[in-house]
Design a protein that fits this description.
Elements (H helix, E strand, L loop, with lengths): L1 H6 L2 H17 L8 E4 L6 E5 L1 H18 L2 H19 L8 H14 L7 H16 L10 H4 L2 H21 L2
Antiparallel strand pairs: 1-2
Helix pairs in contact: 2-3, 3-4, 3-5, 4-6, 5-8
């Protein structure tokens, strides 16, 4: 979609639609979220669900809506956002890696262009507050021992904090 936006070449849009449709056909779970992957060779579906998969597909739906004007993409984006809100943020704690959640936050932020409902950001902010209260270590790193050693996770939390600071100032949630 970025290549289509930069060049206007319809081939990139057509490819994005093919990929989007393939993921929806092969990896979409009954609850509207997405399974992680299909194994190469054995074609087994890995039934784990991660926030980055939902965030990627949510943002893809938004980009397709913006490029085509087709309401079905916006409707699908809203459905993904609602499913993600319930599954990933409904219990007030992050279910997976900070970086994975940063991808979801980017998608929720993008959704604000089309829906001013702040419930996604409010739930996300609650999970962030929980992490800051319960998972911040004495050395300033976030997460359990393994996560604290993972610089990608640390960068994910930094992105989350920066985006939320910007969004909270702009939207007052």
């Amino acid at each position: 979609m970025h290549l289509h936006k930069a060049t206007g070449d319809k081939t990139y849009l057509d490819t994005a639609i093919l990929l989007y449709d393939w993921v929806n056909s092969h990896l979409q779970a009954p609850d509207g979220l997405y399974f992680d992957n299909i194994g190469i060779g054995n074609y087994r579906i890995d039934h784990r669900k991660f926030s980055y998969n939902a965030g990627t597909m949510l943002q893809s739906a938004l980009w397709l809506y913006e490029a085509t004007g087709k309401a079905e993409y916006l409707k699908n984006a809203q459905r993904i956002a609602d499913a993600a809100l319930h599954y990933f943020y409904g219990n007030g704690k992050f279910r997976d890696n900070y970086w994975f959640n940063a991808v979801m936050l980017r998608a929720f932020q993008h959704l604000l262009k089309h829906s001013k409902d702040l419930k996604y950001l409010q739930a996300f902010a609650a999970c962030t507050r929980h992490s800051l209260e319960k998972e911040k270590r004495a050395d300033g790193l976030m997460g359990k021992e393994k996560a604290a050693a993972d610089l990608v996770s640390q960068a994910g939390m930094l992105e989350i904090l920066a985006r939320l600071a910007f969004l909270e100032k702009q939207y007052k949630f």
